[in-house]
Specification:
Length: 195
């Protein structure tokens, strides 16, 4: 049982303890989580997946990510914004995704809202909430990693003010972690120093 500090993985390298439960997590942790993500469509995908994750484990979403991408037209905002009730019915019947009506409707509504924004606005808005890395010491244990921060609360409010749904402060913080706005890899984690 981990005490929340970094744990040696199969290769002997220290990693965040959550990353070691499955090979899928190891790959996601080492190659993706905490790396900067830019671009409206890429951030729409991450925002949508974090919303679908609410109440579930991330591995559930990670293992269905390709299904989500296929179902939601690669998360291209312009395409998802044109989805109709027929598309919603198709999504509700798609076993390759999480078939939650409220989350599906929110993803479609968010795409319609984002389609009205100026290109680059979503990227600019999200990244404007990135805290100063120098003001954030590297977490030593999982207990040092927050679930919500003032920045994620502000990001949540800004997204909601612009018409987006399923973007609470916890979801916003998970997005910030996943997309590299913050680096919550533990201080001794091998991925902390990765480029």
């Amino acid at each position: 049982m981990s005490d929340g500090t970094a744990v040696a993985g199969p290769d002997g390298a220290l990693r965040c303890p959550w990353a070691l439960s499955t090979p899928d997590y190891v790959t996601y942790h080492d190659e993706e989580w905490g790396r900067p993500v830019h671009g409206d469509d890429a951030l729409f995908e991450r925002l949508s997946l974090e919303a679908f994750q609410s109440g579930l484990s991330w591995i559930t979403i990670l293992r269905r990510r390709e299904g989500f991408r296929a179902a939601f037209a690669g998360f291209e905002i312009a395409k998802v914004a044109t989805f109709t009730d027929t598309d919603k019915d198709r999504l509700l019947a798609d076993a390759g995704i999480i078939r939650n009506r409220a989350k599906i409707e929110a993803t479609m509504a968010n795409a319609r809202a984002l389609a009205e924004w100026t290109p680059g606005d979503l990227d600019d808005l999200i990244w404007s909430h990135a805290p100063d890395p120098a003001a954030r010491p590297a977490p030593k244990t999982l207990a040092d990693v927050p679930a919500v921060t003032p920045e994620s609360t502000a990001l949540s409010k800004a997204l909601k003010k612009r018409g987006l749904r399923f973007v609470g402060p916890t979801t916003a913080y998970a997005l910030m972690q996943a997309c590299g706005l913050v680096d919550d890899h533990l201080a001794s984690c091998v991925a902390r120093s990765a480029d």
